[in-house]
C-alpha cells in the first residue's frame, strides 16, 4: 500500500512523478482540473493527447508532463453521476486503480490525484472520497506515495479523516 498524503491546492504545482488528470473522453482539454493541467503543461500536451485518440470511462492513458513539475500526466475519464444507477462508483474505482496500474507501468513511484468526477461530472464528494481512498489503499503495485489534492477545505478535511483512519 502506498503512503497516503493530502494537500489542498493546485495539482499542477506538485513535484511528483505523475499527476492524474480528470479528463473528458476526448482528452483534448476542458474546464476544471483538465483545463488547468493543459494550460500549465503547454501546447505540447494537447498534441500528445491527440495522438492517444481519446479514452474510455474507467480507463487511463499517459503522456509526458512537458512544462509541469511532474514527469508524466496520467489521463483518466471518470463517470458522470447518474444517481448511482449506472455503476458510477465501480467506474470511479476503476479510474483510480487503472491510473495506479499505468503509473507502475511507466515507473512512476509518486502520484498525485485530484478529486475525480466530483466537479462538472457531479459525483457526490463524500462517497467518491471513500472510493478513492479505499481503492488506493488496496493497490499492491510499486507506487510508494499517493497524494490526494483537493480544491476546497471540506474535501481536504474529508480526505485527512479518511487517510488517518
SSE topology:
Elements: E1 3-8, E2 18-23, H1 32-41, H2 43-50, E3 60-64, E4 72-77, H3 88-105, E5 110-113, H4 125-138, E6 145-150, H5 153-164
Parallel strand pairs: 1-6, 2-4, 2-5, 5-6
Antiparallel strand pairs: 3-4
Helix pairs in contact: 3-4, 4-5
What does the model show?
With 165 residues, this protein is α/β, with parallel strands linked by helices. The protein has one domain (3-164): Leucine Aminopeptidase, subunit E, domain 1 (3-Layer(aba) Sandwich). It is built from 5 helices and 6 strands. The chain has a 6-stranded mixed sheet, with helices on both faces. Strand 3 (60-64) and strand 4 form a beta hairpin. The radius of gyration is 14 Å and the shape is globular. The model has no long low-confidence stretch (mean pLDDT 97).
The largest β sheet comes out as: 6 strands, mixed
Question: Number of helical segments?
Answer: 5
Termini distance? 14 Å
CATH class: Alpha Beta
pLDDT average, as an integer?
Answer: 97
Helix- and strand-based class? alpha/beta
The low-pLDDT segments are: none
Tally of extended strands? 6
Q: Can you summarize this structure?
A:
The chain is α/β, with parallel strands linked by helices. Helix content is 38%, strand content 20%. Helix 3 crosses helix 4.
Keywords summarizing the entry:
165 residues; alpha/beta; 6 strands
Amino acid at each position: 500500500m502506498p503512503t497516503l498524503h493530502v494537500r489542498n491546492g493546485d495539482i499542477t504545482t506538485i513535484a511528483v512523478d505523475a499527476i492524474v488528470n480528470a479528463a473528458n473522453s476526448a482528452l483534448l482539454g476542458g474546464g476544471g482540473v483538465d483545463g488547468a493541467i493543459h494550460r500549465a503543461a503547454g501546447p505540447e500536451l494537447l498534441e500528445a493527447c491527440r495522438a492517444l485518440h481519446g479514452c474510455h470511462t474507467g480507463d487511463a492513458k499517459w503522456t509526458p508532463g512537458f512544462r509541469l513539475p511532474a514527469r508524466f500526466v496520467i489521463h483518466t475519464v471518470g463517470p458522470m453521476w447518474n444517481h448511482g444507477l449506472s455503476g458510477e462508483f465501480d467506474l470511479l474505482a476503476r479510474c483510480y486503480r487503472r491510473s495506479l496500474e499505468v503509473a507502475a507501468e511507466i515507473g512512476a513511484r509518486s502520484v498525485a490525484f485530484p478529486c475525480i468526477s466530483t466537479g462538472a461530472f457531479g459525483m457526490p464528494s463524500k462517497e467518491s472520497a471513500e472510493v478513492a481512498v479505499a481503492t488506493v489503499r488496496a493497490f499492491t503495485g510499486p507506487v510508494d506515495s499517493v497524494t490526494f489534492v483537493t480544491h476546497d477545505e471540506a474535501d481536504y478535511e474529508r480526505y485527512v479523516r479518511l487517510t488517518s483512519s
